[in-house]
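Render this sequence as a predicted structure.
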Amino acid sequence: MLTRYHRMRMSTPLARSRHWAAPALPAGSSLHPWDAALLAEHAHVLAAGFAEAIDGVLFPNLTTRIGATTLLQDVTACGGFCPGATWLIRADSEPVAAIQGMVLSGGIGLVHNLAVVPAARGRGFAAVLLRQMLLAYRQLGLRRCELDVTEENTPAVRLYRRFGFKNVNSRSLMLHTV
């Protein structure tokens, strides 16, 4: 059976006057800036987060530790990788949420991936990470931040809209599903 998925390109300006509200980190959790020693923890979060999400259907390589690790190795080795916009959250010493950022030409920051493990969803971790990334991009003097999201991923779309992201482009993907 063919299934149609809709991908949106969303964008938000990084104007100095913008205020991005995010909840405080819950007790027992901690925020960690990028460090290459954390790559395995980022990969764990991506694999666990994508395995039970709509984007895992579209990007099955991200649903395995090996696929997520390979992607992160490639991303961190490329010239656009932005360590200052890449963060990890641990809760009770376990990695539960991660975001990776890239800088594109023209003063654009990119949300490359944002994932939260299923057991940690709904606790505000994604909002904390997105805020950290946007503040980092603003400090770098970038003009705007962009991302691609599956329209059917309503919690993610709702989060991005709360931070001022607007749909600037859409496209459909057709996949064979079982």
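Summary. DSSP finds five helices and seven strands in the chain. The chain has a mean pLDDT of 91.
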